[in-house]
Amino acid sequence: MSDIIFLVISLGIILAGAELFVNGVEWLGKIFNLSEGAVGSVLAAVGTALPETIIPIIAILFGSDAAGKEIGLGAILGAPLMLSTLAMFVTGLAVIGFKKRRTHGSKVFADYSSMSRDLGFFMIVFSVAVLAGTLPPAMRKMQLLTSIGMILAYVWYVRTMLSQERDIESDSEIPACYFARHYQAPPAARVVVQVLSALVLIIIGADLFVHSVKAVALSYGVPAFVLALIITPIATELPEKFNSVIWISREKDTLALGNITGAMVFQGSLIPAIGILLTDWQLNAGAVYSAILTVASSFLLYLQLTRTRHVSAGMLLLCGLFYAIFLVAVFQGFITA
Fold it and tell me: Which residues of 230-268 are buried (b: 16+ CB within 10 A; e: fewer)?
């Protein structure tokens, strides 16, 4: 019973941290004159992706040889899968839930140039990373060159996003800064402190959530491999999901989707590049299978976005089907821990 109580408390901590974070990064965007695309896809995405980013690096560097690398590779490939499928599904549910209070109802109108760039960049760079994992050990130099190219590509992406012009109409829609309510123009230092405090809350909440979920799962006899491949990754992706739900409720679609697609770019380029450098980067059939599901889900979103200039709640919900296919593959033994 106590584990369930801690589980609820951890969710509250993450939600409080997410609320502080979305408010803080919006003010950072205004202070530094950044576009909503840059705020969502760079600041918010990288900030909330930090908890799950630390996991594979620690596993690879400090885990036991084979086991550490296996956990690290699984975490590196698992994050983009969760973001492109389950996170999108949760966002779709949020759109349906807040449909009556949204101007466009079940249609999500995010900044087209930012979203198309995010999804297109992710599909290309992540596919390159996966293909590099199919190369034989004799082509190690090619893998290392690929890693360097992926790092440079992400630097280009960040520079491009930060150079976008800010939409001044969005300034009037930002709620008062929580750490500086009495300031019409809050000091940058206070906003930075708020964002960092929010990240600390998110990390603490996510860590407590993971431990609570493990305890509850063990109490009910949930297999360990289910924890490793399913429950823990869901927990570490909670910040992105909470942030996007909050922004969807306020009809800030560019921030809502950018928070997810920007994290996909970060998790699909820079983190695999580090994985290539720190491991032999030999991916098995199960890893490639999960990567195919990731890219397929992203491609459907990209296809609708380029055709209609928006994303529907139905398409976001459809992304969840790819996660269901992944679960079936896990329980059928095709993808093993």
Answer: bbbbbbbbbbbbbbbbbbbebbbbbbbbbbbbbbbbbbb
Q: Of 13, 20, 18, whose CA–CA distance to 178 is shortest?
A: 20
| Global pTM value | 0.82
Region of residue 274 (phi > 0: left; psi between -120 and 50: alpha; otherwise: beta): alpha
By C-alpha distance, which of 316, 307, 264, 227 is closest to 129? 264
Neighbours of 38 (CB within 10 A): 27
Rounded CA gap, 303 and 285, in Å?
27
In the structure encoding, which two tokens stand for residue 272, read together?
A: 């695999």
Q: Give the separation between CA 31 and CA 12, rounded to whole angstroms.
A: 29
Token pair of 39, please? 């705020």
Q: Is 186 within 8 Å of 180 (Cβ atoms)?
A: yes
| Cα–Cα distance for residue pair 143/151, rounded to 1 Å | 13
How far is 250 from 236, CA to CA, in rounded Å? 24
Distance from first CA to last CA of the chain, Å, rounded? 29
Model confidence at 172, in pLDDT bands (50, 70, 90)? low
Is residue 244 within 8 Å of 94, Cβ to Cβ?
A: yes
pLDDT tens sequence across 283-325: 888 889 989 999 999 999 999 999 999 999 999 999 999 999 9
Give the Cα separation of 204 and 199 in Å (integer). Answer: 8
